[in-house]
């Protein structure tokens, strides 16, 4: 390989690393705050019912704006929309860290959610266009899959270290140097792309419909734990969200320049990959949430200990997604890997559903923390590959935004459903005379069992909906055919 081509290849891999680092930042932030919640509550005098809004204030704009943000990248410039979102996210993180009251923190978290959505919406679309050859593209998807999952698992570890070692402010301030470094490297390494133009897809009315509908969906779901599923508020918000989203799809079918071209969803693989991801993430949100609670509230782990207990998860994901998965993806194809990986996730969740009150980490938790990330490590890159398959270059941003949207909405729906069932089981055990530890263990066990059921449904979808793509020839050279995403 000539020195010029070698230099270009290195620049492309540096671009992949920058995009993965941005993904780690965004995903990390969604979990790092969980460990700091008790400290935030004590310092800013939050009530138990209001504390949840430190999470919801971020999740609602994040989940609602992903689709619109992805399309904006297609229309304007994926690079500069990404950098603008990153700047907003970093500035809002600083604001969160300096917040000295409840209102200030909640407003800052809302702005942070806006920045997170704009930053992350088009990331997957940029990653898959950096390389055209199957071999380096599979490796890039593996790295991005690790960034997505490893960032979430690492958030618990980092959150425990920062909260216990420094203060809760640092769970937000950590984003400042990371954001500056990633932003500077992105400006240097990512191609100065031009979008297809505002007139090619500026469906303002459709954008209002889908953004409002998605925000209402997330808002309705995150409030079910306090209001209940049958409350008039929940039903009213749900009906309004369904009406808005139905109106959006009617609009997309008729609009000359739709925000979400419905041709994207005509692909069985694209539609199936999004549905499978929604079900899988619905299970994994509960896994992350209730495993931490089990360790802290039942086994009496300190925040730092609970965080360190999660270390096997990102380590296994890193090894599998960046070394094993790319080779398997090239050899067997994405559908086969998905059908093999999902049962491992379901088995790990089933193991967790059987944890006792006096559980032992090495006997009852560690096996699942090895089996599940192995399954995730081979499944996620395959889902990403299928989700971006058969998609035109001008639609890659909105398709990436759609994939992220299904992740967030699927997680919100899953956690809402599981938390309702968990709360009911806890109350039932207490009413039957069980002590608090037993009630919590019973409730969390049910939550893990429901997660396993979600994954089982995802496996059935994969079996019946997905179609195996013809395996591309793994080119012997890592040189890309076209300069797609970096200069």
Description:
Pfam families: MFS_1. With 487 residues, the protein is mainly α. The protein has two domains: 3-202 and 257-465, MFS general substrate transporter like domains (Growth Hormone, Chain: A), CATH 1.20.1250.20; 203-256. It is 79% helix and 0% strand. It contains 19 helices and no strands. The protein has helices spanning 3-44, 48-51, 53-75, 78-98, 102-120, 123-130, 134-165, 170-173, 175-189, 204-222, 224-227, 232-254, 268-298, 303-309, 312-332, 334-352, 361-387, 396-431, 436-465. Residues 472-487 have low confidence and may be disordered.
Number of separate domains: 2
Number of DSSP strand runs: 0
Rg, nearest Å: 22 Å
How is the CATH topology of the largest domain named?
Answer: Growth Hormone, Chain: A
Low-confidence stretches: 472-487
Provide a count of the helices.
Answer: 19
Secondary-structure element pattern, one letter each: HHHHHHHHHHHHHHHHHHH
Structural class: mainly alpha
> What is the end-to-end distance?
19 Å
The level-1 CATH class of the largest domain? Mainly Alpha
DSSP helix fraction: over 70%
The CATH superfamily of the largest domain appears as MFS general substrate transporter like domains
Could you report the average pLDDT, rounded to the nearest whole number?
Answer: 81
Please report which band the strand proportion falls in: under 5%, 5-15%, 15-25%, 25-35%, 35-45% or over 45%: under 5%
Under the CATH scheme, the architecture of the largest domain is Up-down Bundle
Based on Cα principal axes, name the global outline.
globular
Transmembrane segments: 12-28, 48-68, 80-98, 110-131, 143-162, 168-190, 202-222, 228-250, 271-292, 304-325, 337-355, 361-388, 409-426, 446-466
InterPro entries: EmrB-like, MFS, MFS_dom, MFS_trans_sf
GO molecular function, one term: transmembrane transporter activity
Keywords: Cell membrane, Membrane, Transmembrane, Transmembrane helix, Transport
